[in-house]
Amino acid sequence: MKARLAKITAMIDGDKEMLGVRKKELNVNPLGRPITKSEESWLVSLQILGSLIGTILVGYCSRKFGCKKSLIISSIPFAIGQLLIAHSKCVALFCIARVVTGACVIFSIGLIPGYVADIAMDHNRGFLSSVTGTTISVANLMNFSIGTIVSIRTMAYIVLSIMVLFLVTFVPFIPDSPQLYIGMHKNKRAEEILKKVRSNSNDEKGITLVDNLLLTHENIKDENAGENIFKSSSTRNGLIICCSLFLFQLFTGYALLSLYLQTIIKASNDIMPPYTVSVTIGILQMLACVISNTFIDKLGRKNLLYISSAGCSSTIISLGIYFYLKKLDYNTDCVFWLPLVALSLNFVSFDLGWSQIPLIISGEVFTSNIKYTCISISIGFATVLAFVIGAGIPFLLELLGMDVIFFACGVITMIAFVFVMLYVPETKVSPECPDNEIRGCIPCCPDPTCEKPKPNCPFQMCTMECRFTCRCDGELIRDTATNKCVKESDCSK
């Protein structure tokens, strides 16, 4: 199952990065001329517009068709977009292709975190979710190594072939989310899916999981639905946390350094050719993602964010110091290597945590009935913010200088460290209810005499197991057969 999920994320997210290749050389550019600054601006802006369209569609399509059908449907316009890129002879068709592919890519990214959280087990949910980050790093490496030496048409067909491979492996082998069938009252099908994706679960445990999912669905099906999501304090808290994480993600320095990669390489006196630097950074990013995948379920999401924040802030501040000294005309020849080393370490630190964990957490902190809608809101917020920052950075650089921008990013990343420490829940423990305060979980025993967990109740933090078989103060337990609280002298998890 791990391998199958890895294929899904590789085929979808890998395409996202490859689409960024825009050749200007006449021998590979189908336009026959380099694009102008205005045309390049339109190509970037229209992809962001497409991304916004994709985020709007995620919530509706996931509820209407389910994750699997939605991903299959999105592959059709994506293929059309790739064919347009391969055969376009004018900028207008390229613009249409960017809108279509931008919408499809963000649409797919919005579905993956919730889908993985629905079908994965506790002990490997983080690993499976973080495969997305690894495939993006692989795509970066392909972009750096292959994208610089092939034409746009060749690259488009490479992307198209990967998508076809995705469909061949995805359609016949990967099931839809069990939550979809629970909502359709097809409990038997949900049970079969759980047994398939959790192959080490016996029949009895599979049935218990379906019972728990069914009871969870009955308890939350009317809560926080549709337009009421903003009326729930727990949902608002979750949205604030996810949007804040995406906000801090943009200020870790990765986006800024990617935009001004050539400037930083030149600041290192061109000790390495740009092509070699790009490929080396791509390899380091891929290794960092593999390390993150390995330890995310052992260390937890927050610990990796701590490490990532510390690495990103220290490297971006060191770059700020370097460019500040250069602005004051100090001799920096003795540390000519610093920009390149700091750049590489910043990218590695970013991929250890901030590159993928905000998306993973967004798939874990919301209940299943609003999960995809809230994820789409969070990603939409990040997309708009990225557009605003990308448009404003050139003016800020001219006004303040690169050193001030680097210092600001370092300080904001330090604030992100504190925010994660104080406000972000650790979601590795339970897929359905990681934090009672964030998710607004029902108390262990909703009996009138036990509306709230007692101070010494060991199950105040609801989990999939304790939500429906739990003890409150040693006297009341929930009967899984009747979903009622009954008196009992003792009860174990």
Automatic annotation (TrEMBL):
GO cellular component: plasma membrane
Name by which UniProt lists this protein: Major facilitator superfamily (MFS) profile domain-containing protein
UniProt cross-references to PANTHER family, sorted A to Z: GH17672P, PTHR48021
Chief place of localization: membrane
Species of provenance: Psylliodes chrysocephalus
Pfam families: Sugar_tr (PF00083)
Record keywords: Cell membrane, Membrane, Sugar transport, Transmembrane, Transmembrane helix, Transport
Membrane topology reported for the UniProt record: Multi-pass membrane protein
Subcellular location: Cell membrane
PROSITE patterns named among the record's database cross-references: MFS
Transmembrane segments: 42-62, 69-85, 91-115, 155-174, 238-257, 277-296, 303-324, 336-354, 375-397, 403-424
SUPFAM superfamilies attached to this UniProt entry: MFS general substrate transporter
Annotated ranges, domain Major facilitator superfamily (MFS) profile: 1-428
Keyword Transmembrane helix applies: yes
Gene Ontology molecular function, alphabetical: transmembrane transporter activity
